[in-house]
Each structure stands twice: as C-alpha cells, then as structure tokens.
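LOG
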Amino acid sequence: MSLVSGIPGKDFSIEDVRGEFPEELEIQSLPHPVDATVTVPGSKSVTNRALLLAALSDGPSTITNPLISDDSFYLMRALTTLGFPLEVKTDKDPAKTQARTLVHVKGQRGIIPARDERLALFAGNAGTVARFLPPMLALGEGAYVVDGVPRMRERPVADLVDAMRSLGVEVGYSGEEGKFPVVVHGGGIRGGEVRVEVSQSSQFLSGLLVAAPYAGEGVILVAGSGRGSKPYVGITTSMMADFGVEVLVDEDLGRFEVSPSFYRAIDYAVEPDASAASYFFAAAAVTGGRVRVPGLGNNSSQGDLKFVGVLERMGCGVEIGRDFVEVMGPERLCGVEVDMNEFSDTMMTLAAIAPFATTPTIIKNVGHTRRQETDRISAVVTELARLGVRVSEERDGLRVEPGPVSGAAIETYGDHRMAMAFSITGLVAKGIRIRNPSCVTKTFPEYFRALDSLR
C-alpha cells in the first residue's frame, strides 16, 4: 500500500489504498514455529466511529493511528463529500522507525454542511459506513442516498430504517423495499423511545446512538431480541464518552438513554485491531510458536480480544499486559466448543486452525454471519471441505473434525476474512493458494506483507 496524504477522493483514490495484488497467491508453509512481534493497523471499528464522532464534534480533532483501508476510505470520502474538512497526513519523520498516519477532521457540531437535493454516498461493502451514515444524515437539510456494492444491497437494513422512522426521520428506499439504496431526507431527529432490532446487526443500534445527542429531545433505545455483538455497542458508548457524551445504559433491560448534548473535539489514538491480531495469534497457536502484538492490552474495549481466551482453552499460553498481548502455542492444540456470537469476526480464524487440533471444534451461535460480506458459515464449510477436512454445517454454526489438510486454491468470495483466515492454514499445510487476495484491502491492505514477516 502506498502511503497516502491529502483529501480522500481528491489527492488519492481507492486504488492508491489498495495497491497491486496477483489474482492468486500461494502461501508458503513455515519450516519452524513463529517467533515474532507483529504490529497490526488501527481498529476498523474504532477508526470509523472516531471519524463520525469527530465530524459531529464542536471543532478540530486529530485521529492518530487510523486504519487506512477500503472501509475507512469510503467513510472519509463520504464525509468530504458532505462538506466536512478532512485531511489525511503521513508523518515521515526519519527519526521514527515507522511512518505515522494522522487524520484531521473539523467537526461542525451536529450540522451536515452539504444540503443537496439528492447527494449520492457510496459505502462499498462497509457495514459501519452504510449503517452509521443514515442516522447522521437525518441531521442535515438535504436528501442523501446511501448505496454500496451489489452484496451490500443484499445485506439487511430494514430494522434501522424502521427505528429511524419511529424517531421522526423521513427515510425510505429508492429500490427494493428493505434493501439499499436508502434515501434519507434531512430535517432532524425528533427523539423519543424506540425498540431497535439487533438480531441481524448491532450496527443499527450503534449508528442511532452516535447521532442521538443531536435529536430534538432525549432518545431511549431498547435493544430487541438477539443482543449479539454487545461488545461492539460497548465500543460505541465508550467512545461517545471519550468525546464528551455519556450514555445511560441498563444492561439487564438492553436500554440506552441519550440526552440532548454535543460532542467535544479531541485528539484520539486508535488502538490496534484485535480482529487483525487474531490471525497472528492463530499463527503462534498452530505452529507452536510465539507472537506478541504491542498496543493491545487489558484495557482494550474490543470484544474480539476474547479470541485469545479460546486459544488458551485450546492449550496456548496467553499473557495480556497493559500494552501488549502475547500468545505461545502448545505442542498440539485441542479442540473446543465455543459460543462466538460476541466475537464472531474471529470465527473464521478458529475454523481455519481447527483441523490441526486433536479433537473436534464446534462453533456455535454465529448465524448472523450468513448476512455479512458473504455467507460466512457456508463459505468456511465449503472451503474446508475443499481442503479435504471433514466438516458439518449447522444453521448457526459448524463442526470441524481434526485430520489431514490437502492443498487447494481457496475461494474468498470477496471476503477479506476468508483470505486472512485460510492463509494461516497455509502456514502449516502445503499447497494452499488464496484467490483474489486483494480483498484484504477492506481492512488490512498490508496483511500479506505482515504475514511474510513471520518468516
């Protein structure tokens, strides 16, 4: 990936973020256990929340260590299209071992500068962008259309639209009912109390929370059935507090109350991405080696860090310090049965190393992943079977049997996590090739370079 500076969409494009990739990439198996310290990029979930909170704040904010990838690019370009002053800067100080990226955003205190009659905003396949923008756009005075790639038009959004309508927002569809593109007519958010269904995505709740301080009256959001991915909502409320807005939370009732307020502009450092780190922790686990990731620690708000607890149950040594996490793999992993609903982005990482365990691995309660970048349960089952692994598919999970793994070309279905997870399988099994490896640019453009550093 090229180091980028300037205004997204003007001084650099999505191609600059992505760089060049082959159509197929063979993963070279490792001749020895890994022993490495790996730096991973900033959290996608935290980066995109920080960008939105900064844009809604009362002045200039600086975001340090943001993730620069497809998802964050689409959000930054949307914000500049909406009229928010935003600039990416790369600090190339030769005294530093690594270049540092900063994003400067000038918040407008809840005002959306652009007031076009039908302003088009493209979210790619980024759920945080497509689902966080509509509540924010309701604060404007124009009409805004949020759309994405064809897969985004298959992903759920109706529960968000229904909740927005209950809060007094004029919002609808420009195509098929219940699907993107979504058309938001500005005019503000009235406020009040509304039930938000989150069984398909907690992003509906988080998007409404982010915009809630600028509603005409207080907002009370009650999470509906299937309160999955609660840690992601926790990231949202924690970051809202960092920017000066407290959310009153009743965990037992799934109730979130926000009073009229405004966000303060601050300087915000994005912690490393726990989901991205999971691949390197898995590499240590499956090779019997050691990997340390600096910057993550016991104060992390990211639920995906729970993945190291699963590895510990499989026999790994795990140390979580104040500003690092280290995993040491055993001589041989043992299988586990685990509910991964609250950290499902790491489900594929676990499935990819499960064949190397001594006993079966059962992954449960991840049915919502069928509606993400691809049907992730079906995709994982299909590709494990392609490798000769005995695997069975359930409605909301899968079971992986231990056994030999054969080489094959892995279909990624355009899903970044498929590519990254099965590349870890390739560190142990020979002959594994990743098709369309460029899909990793969605969240980790430098992934394969970081993977190669394990050698």
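LOG (cont.) second protein
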Amino acid sequence: MKDNHPDELLAVLDGEGKKGEKGKLKIFFGILPGVGKTSAMLRVAQADVAQGRTVVAGWLNCFNCREITSQLEGITTIPFKKIEYKGVHIEEPDLDAILTVHPQLVLLPDLAHTNYSKRLYVKRFREIQVLLDHGIDVYTTLNVSELESCASLVARMTDEAEPDTVPDSVFMSADDVELVDITYEKYIVRIADKNVVTGCIHKKLSGQTSCKETISSLRKLAYRMVSDRLELRKLGVGPQLKQKQRIMVLVGSDTFSELLIRRTQAISYMYDMEWTALYVETDQRLSRNKKRQLVENIRLA
C-alpha cells in the first residue's frame, strides 16, 4: 500500500477485504505488563507451527528476554519499518511487508499501541483490522488497564494513567480471549528473574506497600471483564436479540458515569443494539467540579 489519499486507500482496502474470509483475532489478556502474555502467545504459536501453519512475527517487544527468544524457533520475523519521529528513529511493524508475505498467522502484540507515524492507521488495533480483513489471523496482547472502560479505575488503583487504550468493542468482538493470570508471588519472582518489561505501572506498584492488594484487585477486574464478555456472547445467540434490544445509559455528574458510558456503548456495538445516552436536567445545584465532570461525560457520550 502506498501513501495514497486516505479515502482512496480505505476504498481499496474495503474492496480487497471483502474478497475472502476474514481472519480471526485472539487476544492474550493480562493484568499487568510482564505477567507472561507474550510468552503464552508464543507457546500457542509454536503449536500452530507444528501443525504446518505459516507464522510470522510482525513485532515483538522483548527481544532481549531469555523467555521470549527461546520460543522463536520456526517463526519468521518481518523486518521493522524505521520511522523518524521528533528527531528520534523508531521501529514499527511494516504492515505493507506483512501483507506482501500474507502468512496464515501474524503475531502482533500490544493491541493498544499508538504508532509513531502520520500514515492512515495510527492505532495498532486498526492495523490489525486491516490484516483480519485480508484473511490473516492475528495473535495480540492486551492489559486490563488498556481497556477504555477500565483505564480510569486502574489509574486510581495504581496512581498511573494508561496513555494508550482500546475500545471495549474490540475486546468484546475478538474471536478468542485467553486470560494470562499470575499471583503476586509469581510476579515478584518474574521481576527478580528480569522477565518483566518495566513500565510506569510496574514501577509504581513495586514501590507500594499495598502491591499485593493492588494485584489482587487487578486480577478480579480482569476476571470480571472476561466473564462479562462470555456472558454477552451467550446472550447473542439469536438474531432476535439484535432486532429487539435497546440499551440506555443515564449520564450523571460523577466519574462512574464514564464507566457506564463506555461499557454500555461496547455492548451496543457488539450486538448492534440501539444505544441512547440520557441526561435529565434538574434544579439541583452542582459544584464546579461536578459541572466539569458532567460536561466531560456528555461530551464522551
């Protein structure tokens, strides 16, 4: 794909994507960076290699990690595209090269990543959608903090806001989600063995006396999201649900409204329901902070 006008490029991709069967998306879902999502992804990918499937790595973010490099046998790595961003040379997945090779399966971790590029597909989940539209299966990774509906809650737990997030609809509509779980004790061992890619959240947690409680809370949140996804997919067994169901969310002046807006919108997107956000104006006087939060919630809706 050359850097054509975005509208022209979308038209070409839309036409090409409808020629064959769509690829399938599998998400390896975890509570924190470093819990073993990439390693779990590679273990499953090795089973695909053993079955004779063509598997390539479009991007792996832990080349120096012993745990990762030992699992790359039989998996070809597509050379990265070097991009200059604000005077710094950065490596990003080469979508054009992947499409040219057209493997059966691509490993492209970090679903929420934002590319350092001015091209059409800024977010990685949008690039992944292009691969799926071309009939290529994709394995990727995601942390619970990177889900839009969970980001603000996790930020309150860890005192660190997640810069990159993914719409819940991407998570809910994935063909398969595998939860990569870990206990506090195992996580500490992984840190000691340097099997953790350190990041902002990890640094915050490692300095907290309540680290164990925080990891426990993150585990519960991740389990709840996976459970909610399974329940929603069970509800969508019949076409009548899409035709008859509507969903409404009441928008208020508190931060909980943000969570409700994102979660209900994700549900409506997944099941093609009619979605309505409603705010009821009353004579109640709101504080300046409440008014600001209300405006933000309405703008989000």
